[in-house]
Amino acid sequence: MATRSWVDVRDGSDFPLQNLPYGVFSRRGEAPRCGAAIGDWVVDLAPLLGDPIFAAPSLNAFLATGRERWDQVRRSLTSFLSDPSHADDVEPHLISRQDVTLHLPFEVADYVDFYASEDHATNVGRMFRPDAEPLTPNWKHLPIGYHGRAGTVVVSGTDVVRPCGQRKPPDGLPTYGPSQRLDIEAEVGFVVGVGSPQGTRVRAEDFAEHVFGVVLVNDWSARDIQFWEGQPLGPFLGKSFATGISPWVVPLPALEHARVAPPRQDPEPLGYLQTTGDTALDLALEVELNGTVISRPPFAGMYWTAPQQLAHLTVNGASLRTGDLFASGTVSGPDRDQRGCLLELSWNGTEPVQLADGSSRTYLSDGDTVVIRATAPGADGVRIGFGELRGTVQPASPGGRGTPAR
Amino acid sequence: MATRSWVDVRDGSDFPLQNLPYGVFSRRGEAPRCGAAIGDWVVDLAPLLGDPIFAAPSLNAFLATGRERWDQVRRSLTSFLSDPSHADDVEPHLISRQDVTLHLPFEVADYVDFYASEDHATNVGRMFRPDAEPLTPNWKHLPIGYHGRAGTVVVSGTDVVRPCGQRKPPDGLPTYGPSQRLDIEAEVGFVVGVGSPQGTRVRAEDFAEHVFGVVLVNDWSARDIQFWEGQPLGPFLGKSFATGISPWVVPLPALEHARVAPPRQDPEPLGYLQTTGDTALDLALEVELNGTVISRPPFAGMYWTAPQQLAHLTVNGASLRTGDLFASGTVSGPDRDQRGCLLELSWNGTEPVQLADGSSRTYLSDGDTVVIRATAPGADGVRIGFGELRGTVQPASPGGRGTPAR
């Protein structure tokens, strides 16, 4: 098998032959449908493969078919794009990425967000519970998580309106208005293809039978709203206004060469959370704010892995559905320039982050653009990329639909 | 207009002419479709009204049409069922409720659970934070809520498998196994028909433009799992295994006569949470365990109302979607026999609840059946009922799918 496509893929492209991620695209005036990315091109899958499952405006039906079919399609695509004898068949179905709009790649069923970085959880604990142990007593025994709002998951490129809500100054009454501590969280998300029945559980070792692929996630967060509302039931409006995901779902087989051993866990977790082998993923994330890279969070060091999260999520018999998305929580490493959110990077607003244009930020300003990227080692020595997860902050609309802000 | 249907409806039926709730039913061997309840009958809506929107296996498409259409259909149905001259047209489309299976009435988009009873929140605070104020400082300023798992919302009659998970004894390490504190929460849920765009908000006074109707909710809870996992991000596996809802969605107009003034709020809430008029609902709930009524929670006294919850839910610009469900949280009144969960009724297991069969319960045993009912004042002096929300506890399956419990 060739290690390069006959399609012209520039060196360093996020989308070499070894990647082949899936998304949903449209050309002007045409209905959205499923495609795969190769270099700067989108492959129009339904006509190329003769399979109407890809004519749908979401990947869900394909995701539901299961691993055998996923592997078949990947083999077909790899063959079409590596063997030059197929060029005449494929070329009519290659569309320049410049000519398409990318859409949310799948309908999100339930969205769960974990809290799996020890460095992130420790930093947050130090800031907000300075007199206590930074990690809560449960943290090393189970992957802490919560449900987010599936309906506000948006694709890269969607502007984010600064949310309004209640926030309370330390020595005053709560007030209503635009969040003054708008933040991002750089995360990695896992997309469920094959569901599971209610009342059963999914074992960590069955991860690849259920999880189709990986996206980048930006869990936009309004820290002032979040911290006032958050007790006793956790985050709600501080998170529910928007969650960004990257437009291309990178299938698990593309990340086979990125698999690494997870960090050692002490204490040893309970049986249903025990795993063996290379269950972590060596993804190198990058967070850019207005053109300045402000952080390079390493995903390989996350304390809890995605297979552990899947096993935990279902250990109580909760069902999985096609389109479920579960994210890692903020990816932060031990170093200062590896922190995945401004809360940590600015140490809750006390240490401004310098940008290349001479300005600085504690939290986000209106008009700011955040881009999250990631790469991973792929087959044949190439890098697997995720494409951009981009979002720009739009000013708040405190009155909303005609209601005055008070 | 007649105040009784020509259909034979026994006195005290949950489903008089003034109710006409919507659900999804099937007869053996037939596909699920939308119906309305009248007495002991189900009206097969698609053929009667000649509208294929009701031939679908969920109410979602009808919910999305909006208030004008909702009102039209209700007027048509009322006319068909009150005017005896329509009897010949209607009778072929009346099916005995004994002959049908009831299904989940709508596809749940996002599920949010609030915490709106002051008595419930105070009792929980007293039990778990005995040295602090029972209510957290934010509680009277905003309706506390969180997102639950939409994919595990099930219709009445669905058995609930006792969940497994981690729980930690006070002076020991966490262990894995079946929950030993399985509980119910009697709640009232609101079903969103018409969505709203991301980045805008919905005012409390626009409640009836967006909310279609009301169901009963049983938010099954595993207290031991919930309390070990719950810090710092709130409930997750302690709740996500199952949430029951009643099969009939009672439309808001059926509850017009149940509207009452909400309790006075002190402090006065911020502007976006201020409402005027009769925004509360006088629903009388009843919780039955193995045939013994163990509680009669009054919904009218809830501190935060559903219109306030809707305004809060969207004040940050979160969109609404057709099929969103938001529930009240446990409905508890000030009296002991008005508490809506066993956690409160048994005061965290210290005061067993006596049943008519001579047994007692702190939390639920395998085989226990819980039924939640409610009635409300309707037009013409009748009572509006919700039907039963029933669930039976099945034994845990600690190994799940072949994985031994450890």
Structural notes for this entry:
The structure is a homodimer of 406-residue chains. The first copy, chain A, has helices at 45-49, 60-63, 67-82, 87-90, 118-128, 207-210, 223-229, 306-314, 342-345; strands at residues 22-27, 33-38, 41-44, 94-96, 100-103, 111-114, 145-148, 153-155, 160-161, 164-167, 175-178, 182-183, 186-192, 211-218, 221-222, 243-245, 250-251, 259-260, 280-281, 284-289, 292-295, 325-327, 353-354, 360-361, 369-377, 383-385, 389-394. With 406 residues, chain A is of the alpha+beta class. Chain A is built from nine helices and 27 strands. At the A-B interface, strand 7, strand 10, helix 7 and helix 8 of A face strand 7, strand 10, helix 7, helix 8 and helix 9 of B.
Question: How would you concisely characterize the structure shown here?
Answer:
2 copies of one chain form a homodimer. Chain A is of the alpha+beta class and 406 residues long.
List the helices and strands and how they pair.
The structure is a homodimer of 406-residue chains.
Chain A: E1 22-27, E2 33-38, E3 41-44, H1 45-49, H2 60-63, H3 67-82, H4 87-90, E4 94-96, E5 100-103, E6 111-114, H5 118-128, E7 145-148, E8 153-155, E9 160-161, E10 164-167, E11 175-178, E12 182-183, E13 186-192, H6 207-210, E14 211-218, E15 221-222, H7 223-229, E16 243-245, E17 250-251, E18 259-260, E19 280-281, E20 284-289, E21 292-295, H8 306-314, E22 325-327, H9 342-345, E23 353-354, E24 360-361, E25 369-377, E26 383-385, E27 389-394
Parallel strand pairs in A: 6-22, 8-16, 9-27
Antiparallel strand pairs in A: 1-2, 1-5, 2-3, 3-4, 6-7, 10-11, 12-15, 13-14, 13-22, 14-16, 14-17, 18-19, 20-21, 20-25, 23-24, 25-26, 25-27
